[in-house]
Amino acid sequence: MELDERKMKILQAIIRNYLETGEPVGSRTISKYTDLNLSSATIRNEMADLEELGYILQPHTSAGRIPSDKGYRLYVDNMMKAKALELAEKEKEVDNMREFLNDKVDKVETLLKNMAKMLATNTDYAAMISAPQVHKNKVKFIQLSQVENHQMLCVIVLEGNIIKNKIINVKEDIDNETLLKLNILFNSSLNGLTLEEINLGIISKMNGQAGEQLEIARSVLDAVAEAISAEDNLEIYTSGATNIFKYPELSDSSKAKELISTFEEKQLLSSLIEKDNEGSDNGIKVYIGEETPVHTMKDCSVITATYELEEGVHGTIGIIGPKRMDYEKVVDTLKYIKDQLDSVYKKKE
Amino acid sequence: MELDERKMKILQAIIRNYLETGEPVGSRTISKYTDLNLSSATIRNEMADLEELGYILQPHTSAGRIPSDKGYRLYVDNMMKAKALELAEKEKEVDNMREFLNDKVDKVETLLKNMAKMLATNTDYAAMISAPQVHKNKVKFIQLSQVENHQMLCVIVLEGNIIKNKIINVKEDIDNETLLKLNILFNSSLNGLTLEEINLGIISKMNGQAGEQLEIARSVLDAVAEAISAEDNLEIYTSGATNIFKYPELSDSSKAKELISTFEEKQLLSSLIEKDNEGSDNGIKVYIGEETPVHTMKDCSVITATYELEEGVHGTIGIIGPKRMDYEKVVDTLKYIKDQLDSVYKKKE
DNA sequence: GTTAGCACTCGGACAAAATGAGTGCTAACA
DNA sequence: TGTTAGCACTCATTTTGTCCGAGTGCTAAC
Description:
Two copies of one chain form a homodimer. Chain A is an alpha+beta fold. In chain A, about 45% of the residues lie in helices and about 20% in strands.
């Protein structure tokens, strides 16, 4: 037995209906819902087949059918094109976004936080967005300056204008000239290098040149190492975690707690961040149910997209919702946001 | 009718019992629970009085009594001294904290995040902690440097070592000498000043001296204004929002959603941040039920404490839990944390 | 002032009954 | 051979009724 066109149509009708209502859908409903002009009895026969094929399942005897993960997958991969965002709605969203985008584009952090919030509000699902990660963090600029007695400020700018600050306490102050020398030394020795490239050789060479300021040089190197190491840099913004309460299948206490905890402990979301941005389609990936890398989200679907602010500087946007989420709308929205983010800085130049 | 000693004892017993069990407590229980040697009937009479006085109430006829907000208030203000943290437990907590404190004290942000997490874990309530606010933000140090073609980095250090960075795009680069001059100009003009003190006079004077670099000077001033203005600086870390699911009276969908949303939208918590740290007792304040400034928390109690990292640099710690929270333990814990935070930096110097 | 006794209230738990959506199967039909 | 009407059956949900017990308020006696 295999999926003929009629079965496809019926499956599609089931999924559509279930996405809308969230209720198991019965044969009678489909018999009217479609333009196939088939009686409920016939539909029942076909449904039995679809169940045997694994595309739908029954929560219990004498209930309607709901799509299985496999059914959703087929839908997402093959059947989804038809519907599209209502034009009016899209217009409205575009306006919203432009507003946000024009607002404070100079602060990436604010922009991304706003983005997350907007996504959550617009979709009624939970949204996450990771701050851009530089694939290979490179030092672009280092500056050491005296702020106060016994306190130095070390500013490190990485490729992609990621700025790190560190206050370093020193035993004795150094004069301006030495400071200048040190700055030149740091910049000439470390600029353009990744963490791996700052190897022992360079460090010992620097130590040699730093002369008496060994202690400071060591502190600076530590700061650089800290700034540059990728782990610490993972920053994730989330919004709309409480949207899950809108979906009864997710909002019983234990599930809700688990999900929201996952959102609170943002580290747990890191496995959703794409390392490679070679996604199937525009860098957009759809995880359905058990497919998701985060186990606590096994009752959800997750859709992620990768954006690229500047060459080599990319992050991930994710939408988490119930399995019966509006895949088309979310994919469209993510595509749009992705495009916007992709062009924010590129356009400006 | 007024509160004699016996009524006090009975009220105290009711509250203690309710804090432990979370169930309405009946006359029979109290009759045994206390060492008053009174029959349940007598207790009932007293309870009727206590109810009339407004210290306790009945969820419904034929249920036991639970404390009213007024009852809790009396308890917190007058009856609480007796119990104290178990010594063993306290020791354990102290150890935990020391561990956290010793870990990465150099990064205030990390420290506070860890603190919040620890508080939430230790108390089983939700915790919030506001990053230190400087009462009157003063500029301590400004540095402008060239990072790349057409890109300047402006670093602003405020009193209390709060560091702000801003990338400024410029039309044409400036030579090293001018840069040096500008830096000296900024530092000599702005250091030690608050936002109010940087008035139009100074700005126009600076404009005069900046000469051709007017555009840059303006950008820098903007950056300073942004860095220094208090609103943007409000940073609040939260943890353990999902702990509320541990208390049935808070964990039905709608209440939980409201509470967790409040935690997510951290701005909503700002009214809990104390502007003046002149609290009643050690800067610790207890809000019970309707007393709390955040309306969504009317079914909760909130306890806040103010800490002071350095002279004039303070923030607020808050614990949010059910009204039947363990007030003594929370107050003790907050006091302890407050002391720790108060001394972290002061000790070091 | 305290206590024992008793009638009364009311929420919660439990079980039986009613409801109804939906199925699977069979037999008839085109 | 595919389609359909009809019917018995299943099972989650809702409704209804009953019971139970914790706890109260009141009264009368101590």
